[in-house]
Amino acid sequence: TIGRGLRLCVNQNGDRVRDPxxxxxxxxxxxxxEQFAENLQKEIETDTGLRFGIVESHQFAGVSVAGDDGQAxxxxxxxSRILWDHLKSSGYIDGKGKVQDALKRDLKSGMMNxxxxxxxxxxxxxxxxxxxxxxxxxxxxDERRQVRLRKEVYLSSEFSSLWERIKxxxxxxxxxxxxxxxxxxxxxxxxxxxxxxxxxxxHKADLAIGKAGVEATExxxxxxxxxxxxxxxxxxxxxxxxxxTQLTRRTLVDILFKSGRLSDFKSNPQxxxxxxxHSIGHCKRLLLVNGIRYQRLGDESYYAQxxxxxxxxxxxxxxxxxxxxxxxxxVVYDSEIEHEFAGELEKNSAVKVFAKLxxxxxxxxxxxxxxxxxxxxxxxxxxEKLYFVVETKSTLYTxxxxxxxxxxxxxxxAHFEAIRASRSPAEFVLAETFNDVFTHIKRGE
Length: 445
Hints:
By secondary structure, the chain is of the alpha+beta class. It has helices at about 35-50, 75-90, 100-110, 120-135, 150-155, 155-165, 180-190, 235-245, 250-260, 260-265, 270-290, 305-310, 335-345, 405-420, 435-445; strands at about 65, 70-75, 145, 170-175, 200-210, 215-225, 290-295, 315, 320, 330, 350-355, 375-380, 385-390, 425-430.
């Protein structure tokens, strides 16, 4: 959070809202848009030491690994360099360490390729790379456009028929076994990577200032100092974990004592808190998703088709594509996969009508709101009409529920199962390309 202008807004309860659709900062700058964006990012890099989208060769030196004696220790610069070279040879970064799209794609899908010997540290490595691969996103307001309805599609019987099958709202309940949650959390914490002792790292470099700019060359003298436990101020562990996990203090005490890893808290409080939070969050998501049951609400509870006229949709020129079969004149896409999928829908003669579902079309889940990607109507053999809700992802492997996003998708599938119409219901499909939807049709699912 940087300065007053970039602070996250709060809701009526005083809680920070982290929805990127709500947190839009408008800046009226004296200089050009490109110059403002460049200067702002340079200022942040100068003030914070953060280099946007750059992976340094020493970036993973502090990753915790188990030594020969079983004790946690940092990975070190040599192994960090080996990992950096692998990222470069895999096309994840270029020769200067700049993050490439391939890394962002594989991080999102959970399919990042790691060399042998680094798999146990995957969670720590991916967390570092997620932070580094993000970039301050600044958009030019001059390129913002309102997206208009395509009336002939919006008023067509085909779209009305499609909307009728997906518009219903639901409520859910979760069957939650507290004892199983405790047992699962205990085991997850036991199996988690070792926690390294808190340490200070520093490097020495020579600076050369010339007409070409400032150049830094690292010299011999890098060092690591391990902090003693009595030098570390311990935070209120239960209060922090209660706030992050929403579990009771009694349940947390039970989990922590049974895990047998409380000594790690003294060695490195922050890393231990992150480890426990991640483990409990993973186990909670599994239980919530596996135990959730959706039920369709009454006939008066649904998303009215008229909302397309009442709710304004806007986008930016660089992420809009013109279409004719959609309820909107353009599709506002969020990724290259969505861009390609919209093109496939537009070109395929079997697709009669489709919609990129707007942000206000939501499914309630215990993990937060879920907004599906697409609603599609397909005509098969020139007669039978088939209806789909499609989630486009870069991978079709949905068994991994480590991320909240995967859990929300599973909840979305359960929601659409609960509102299935008696005749020609809308099927929920996970797809990389439109060919995956056709595969679904051929299987008769």
